[in-house]
Write a structure and sequence with these properties.
CATH class of one domain: Mainly Alpha
CATH superfamily of one domain: MetI-like
CATH architecture of one domain: Orthogonal Bundle
Helix content: 55-70%
Number of helices: 14
Structural class: mainly alpha
Radius of gyration: 29 Å
Distance between the termini: 55 Å
Length: 404
């Protein structure tokens, strides 16, 4: 007669790794992990052997070599005598600049279009529908090239400003629009300017604090406090007061035509504008559909109940509908932010020096370090994608429906 031994009393047997449901799943995972590790080790070993046979080595020492090429727009000091690593950092910062600006602008376009598409005004809703359908169904590369072509063809060259008074050719005598880009005034930080900047940052925090207080008052007591004009007063009045009390410590470096181009101020190059605007309006069309779906997922009874309490349509949307729709909007919104960041690699089509153009383009061609450059590119996009996803998931957890 065969007897059964209880594992809790009779000890552990190797056969339990496959026969016992408590250990079977772990056993299969360990086996798959070992097999995958062997495959990766084999591929890596084969790569190293082939490189050695071809007389090549796997090294990142090329990053310290002189780059030998110029970059049109940089956020940090750079010249052709800088290292390849410095050029890579320029590309990284340019990519992050487009990603941040694009995500902000695309969100504004998307939320506005998504809300207006549900408008009861037939013309407004049809115009938003046309925007969504037109920009969603044309590849983003085409829009990048179209916007870049419009800028370079329709705007005048800097030489056209020669001999003209600034007020007659520049917007408000401060902004110059040319086929090379847009030139805007740059701030000049004098003594005391840090205090003004600090007051402005504190004013922004105070705006959020006031809006949170107003919302709490509404939920706790039903008291409806104004949001618009108090927020503007809190944001600008303290900063303007500090600016004049400290003797105007922040000045402006206004762009001026010198030679064949503008000097001074800040240049926003045509490639950056084309890439930024194209990615924003393209991604904004997808976000608009996400916003529309999120709003329509909220029960119509919520709107009717809020209206019965006397709330205006704008307050109903901002205080009742959108907060509930966010848990539907955020998950696909994360994907749109990731797509926008990765689509920024199309910058090379208009000559914008992002990380793909610098490290994955010129540096790779000059050094021949294809494996190293591509590996660094993969790691960068993986890191930035995981960072965006992680931050947005934290926000998603804060707005999701919490059960009692």
């Amino acid at each position: 007669m065969t007897t059964y031994t209880d594992p809790e009393k009779g000890g552990f047997h190797v056969s339990q790794l496959l026969s016992d449901t408590r250990y079977r799943a772990i056993t299969f995972q360990v086996i798959v992990f070992i097999l995958l590790s062997l495959v990766l080790w084999r591929l890596g070993s084969n790569l190293v052997t082939n490189l050695r046979t071809a007389g090549l080595t796997f090294s990142f020492g090329f990053l310290a070599d002189t780059a030998g090429y110029d970059v049109g727009q940089t956020l940090i000091p750079y010249s052709s005598q800088s290292s390849n690593w410095q050029a890579a950092k320029v590309g990284i910062l340019n990519t992050l600049l487009v990603a941040v600006l694009g995500c902000i602008t695309a969100t504004i376009f998307g939320v506005t279009a998504g809300v207006l598409r549900l408008s009861k005004n037939w013309i407004v809703s049809r115009l938003m529908a046309a925007y969504v359908e037109a920009f969603r169904n044309v590849p983003v590369l085409i829009w990048i090239l179209i916007i870049y072509a419009i800028m370079t063809v329709s705007l005048p060259a800097p030489s056209a400003f020669r001999g003209e008074t600034p007020d007659s050719t520049m917007l408000a005598g401060l902004f110059a629009f040319t086929n090379r880009g847009i030139y805007i005034p740059a701030p000049i930080w004098n003594a005391g300017s840090g205090i003004v900047a600090g007051v402005f940052v504190l004013s922004i925090a105070a705006v959020f604090a006031y809006r949170a207080y107003a919302k709490k008052q509404l939920f706790d007591s039903g008291r409806l406090l104004p949001m618009g004009w108090p927020s503007l007063l809190i944001l600008f009045v303290p900063t303007i007061a500090a600016f004049f009390l400290l003797g105007r410590p922040v000045g402006l470096d206004i762009p001026a035509l010198r030679g064949f181009n503008f000097a001074g101020g800040i240049k926003i190059g045509a490639p950056l504008i084309a890439l930024w605007f194209a990615l924003s309006i393209y991604t904004g069309a997808f976000i608009a559909e996400n916003v529309r779906a999120g709003i329509q997922a909220v029960s119509q009874g919520q709107t009717e109940a809020a209206a019965a309490l006397g709330l205006r349509p704008g307050r109903i949307m901002s205080l009742v509908i959108l907060p509930q729709a966010m848990r539907v909007i955020i998950p696909p919104l994360i994907s749109q932010y990731l797509n926008l960041t990765k689509n920024s690699s199309l910058a090379i089509a208009v000559g914008y020096a992002d990380i793909t153009a610098t490290l994955g383009g010129i540096t790779l061609n000059q050094t021949g370090r294809a494996i190293e450059c591509v590996l660094l590119l993969m790691l960068f996009y993986l890191a930035i994608s995981l960072t965006i996803s992680g931050l947005m998931n934290i926000y998603n957890n804060s707005v999701r429906l919490k059960e009692r």
